[in-house]
């Protein structure tokens, strides 16, 4: 994660069902579904003003830390999150082994 994102807080916006970070009034976020011990990440997005800044990657990394810190298992349905974990295989440790694409990570 780029240093400029390290001190930005991750918000779990339960009303909108998304994890989000805010940079200069603009958001990068991941839509999620939570059931019991699992959190499914379904869609990652950064507002156009944040394109190319690394904000999407930062919100993914912060969300993975949140999931691990809350002892949940990840279901990475979002293609961006799935690709992030492939690129950073150390995060496979929090993916639920029952996830259909687990062996492709």
From TrEMBL:
Superkingdom of the source species: Bacteria
InterPro entries, per database record: Acyl_CoA_acyltransferase (IPR016181), Gcn5-rel_NAT (IPR045057), GNAT_YJDJ (IPR031165)
Pfam families: Acetyltransf_CG
Gene3D superfamilies xref list: 3.40.630.30
Swiss-Prot/TrEMBL keywords: Transferase
Domain N-acetyltransferase: 11-96
GO MF term (any one): transferase activity
Protein name listed in UniProt: Putative GNAT family acetyltransferase
The organism of origin for this protein: Chryseobacterium defluvii
